[in-house]
Design brief:
With about 130 residues, the chain is of the alpha+beta class. It has one domain. It is about 55% helix and about 15% strand. It has a three-stranded mixed sheet. The termini are far apart. The relative contact order is 0.15.
Length: about 130
């Protein structure tokens, strides 16, 4: 009886520590020099735009990993995208929303192909607006 109770308590402690781990903030860090450079000329704007096209893919990978880690997420959440200068002197934090529509599509893989393109497009626009 005591052994069973001890095993149940250990299991509950493990579950509680796993839930606390899921409460950590969703944050991804990206290093970029171009995000902090003045984009006055068209060439500078194009370079920044080209570099920023890669960031939503990183956000998507991170969102999929977090959803795989915690299958109980059903409501919208934010991922904080931290863009830092290589010498760590400057930092921009942009909260990127992950809506229920995307969560449902990423979990069930029903409509994944259509929704991942929309997610990448929305994330790209959200990040550019935040810069």
């Amino acid at each position: 009886m005591k052994k069973s109770l001890l095993i149940v308590l250990l299991f509950l402690a493990f579950e509680l520590s796993a839930q606390i781990n899921f409460l950590t903030p969703y944050e991804i860090t990206i290093e970029s020099e171009l995000a902090f450079a003045p984009a006055i000329e068209d060439l500078d704007q194009m370079r920044l735009s080209f570099e920023a096209q890669k960031w939503p893919i990183d956000v998507l990978r991170y969102a999929l990993a977090r959803l795989k880690q915690n299958p109980y997420i059903v409501a919208a959440f934010f991922i904080e995208v931290s863009i830092v200068h290589p010498d760590q002197s400057k930092k921009i934090i942009i909260p990127v929303p992950v809506n229920e529509r995307y969560i449902r599509a990423f979990k069930t893989e029903e409509g994944f192909n259509e929704n991942y393109v929309d997610f990448l497009s929305d994330t790209y626009e959200w990040i550019l607006d935040g810069l």
